[in-house]
Model the fold of this input.
Amino acid sequence: MRRFAWIVTIAALLVLGSGCQRAAPSLEERAKGALAQTKGRLPLSGLSKQVEVLRDQWGVPHIYAQSADDLFFAQGFVAAQDRMFQLDLWRRAGAGELAEILGPSYIERDRFARLMRYRGDMQAEWPSYSPDAKAILTSFARGVNAFIATSGDKLPIEFQLLGIRPGVWKPEDSLLRIAGLLMSRNAVSEVVRAQLIERLGPELTEALLPPEPPVKIESLKDPLLAGIDTSMMRTLEAAIGPARFDEKTEPGSNNWVIDGTMSATGKPLLANDPHRPVVLPSLRYLAHLVAPGWNVIGSGEPALPGIAVGHNERIAFGFTIVPIDQEDLYVEKTNPQNPNQYRYQGQWRDMQVEHEKISVKGRPEPVDAALKFTVHGPVIHEDPAHNRVFAMRWVGTEPGTAGYLPSLALDRAQNWQQALEALERWKVPTENIVYADVDGNIGWVAAGMTPVRNWSGLVPIEDEAGKYEWKGFLPVSEHPQRYNPPEHYIATANHNILPRGYRHQLGFEWTPPFRFGRIDEVLKSGIQAGKKFTIEDFEKLQHDATSIEARKLVELLKVAPGSDPSRAMLTSWDCVLSKDSAAAALYELWVRRLKEQFLAERVPADVRALAASRFNDWTMIELLKREPPAKRNALLTEALRDAAAEAVRRMGEDVKQWRWGALHHIRFHHPLALDAERRKLFDLGPVERGGDSNTVFNTGGTGFQQTSGASYREIFDVADWDRSVATSVPGQSGQPASPHYADLLPLWADGKYFPLPYTRAAVEKYTTQKLILEPK
Done:
């Protein structure tokens, strides 16, 4: 959803100049007039029986239906009531229909989206998610369309400002692949690594970007692989959004689960905080779905039916990204006499070429888009000057690889065995899924479709001979997993989860283990102290700002000579990145300077930013340890001196006035907020933040602005589901005049949670609005 923050900006500029010759309602009045009906009775065509929608005081809809068809019709309708503009942009981006409303600059993006569309057997696609997936997605689409039909001209304010209408929703729209592609960035990583190898050499590149576990990387000496440059990067960026080549904004997450021996209730507790872009409106949408065979609550994405992370009557589940490599770039030699032919297995082969028409705003005729494919997959970049094209093989061409939809099966699992069976369907995105059940069991599976290769997959390859081909996919039974471990707990945080001696290849690029290290430390120390953990303990841990990275760097600083005040400030600091900490502010300026100076000594200026995009702080610390002490100490102290000077420039001479929160914020900016009236209606913040990208309280971003992290958190009490809690931001509704547009922001900003009621009695206790949907 991060890409939507800029998708509509150009279109918004087109409507700014339009004005009225007569008095008109204010923007706020227009927004209020567009609010959906959330109480009373509402007759709808397409329902078979009455459905109750009880919205609690935090805007979470609890939907009670008498059949699965009516349940998912209602989920689609209710999601559209709150997030119709978000839904429409999601659909257009995935279907390749943005240029129709935003103009010519989106033609290439639309072409790429259509290139990524699933073209396989639909008889294999639908049941891959669950046996009734087609029926569920059909009902969900009918619900979305029912909202559009009943809205008439009373559309959300964004549609009014842009002068557009939402398109019709089809069941197949929930199967679009672009959203899943955004969660798998290995193709971009391959390009970065190839460029660095060419400019820096393989040894330095491997030192800066060490694969885990160590592996021999394929040679790039073939002339066809030379000069993979920024033009390729620009193609990828245009195709999958404004990619930030900074590990601090990569998708991440934390999750952990403990069994009853470690909890105050004697039953498991499960905590999860998925990290994705923190945007307006929120990427996440909470709901509670109740019908025969269904009683699941939690969060998902508004454009998808079901619940992605949550619990039913018997089991709870949560996830974090596990970076399994699901993409490979192939460089294909093309025929100088015919650019639509490529060399494979000793002969020229014709590419498969499809032509589609893309409607473009402002143009009377649609534009022809040529979609090309080789035996390896869609052609994502053409380089006629070097007689080559880049084709991408990725799992999205396989049945069942639309993101998150296998949760339709997991939502109804009743035990560990049924959960494992459901996870056989889980293909995209790749996730560490943790599990707990009412019988006291806990478990974990690294789930997702894993290609079997005979090469590393870390750089683009030339494969005219056909020797670099996937050999099928690894069954889930061979994926790393645990069930009721003797440690009594399981935790993941995007770190390297490969068991010692694991013989299969999942991937080689992991998040630094700082966050996992802190979670593991707290849980282990609890065991040693005989502590029994509570929900309140896990709320605190999800907001823990203790930096393992800071500890490691401060330890190095302690042995460096010096006695200046800035050194004393850090060496006496507790390494907690609280927003009120002066030392935390100095530390963050220091570690940024340190990384810049470390790379400046080793990497030429023209590729330094590229190297920094994949060079992480864990690797920097390990390389610093290997430096001669005198050289390391000089680098540490020089960077600290520069950081102290920057702190004075930013926050003044008085150290008592220094605060990490004074530098570190989050702002919720709406792309249509282009004047004072709109900013007042749409925008939220700024909000001061503690933590950083390497703390459990993940608040990563660029320029000290948080752009990613946990917009949603959940903690489930298996002993009593009604004691479960959650946070989300900024609110359940995407409509700015709604009371639920920003009501969750103050709680989220203060690290506070709201109840997630589950039983009917608990739901009714917190209900503030009741809407009866009835057959028309």
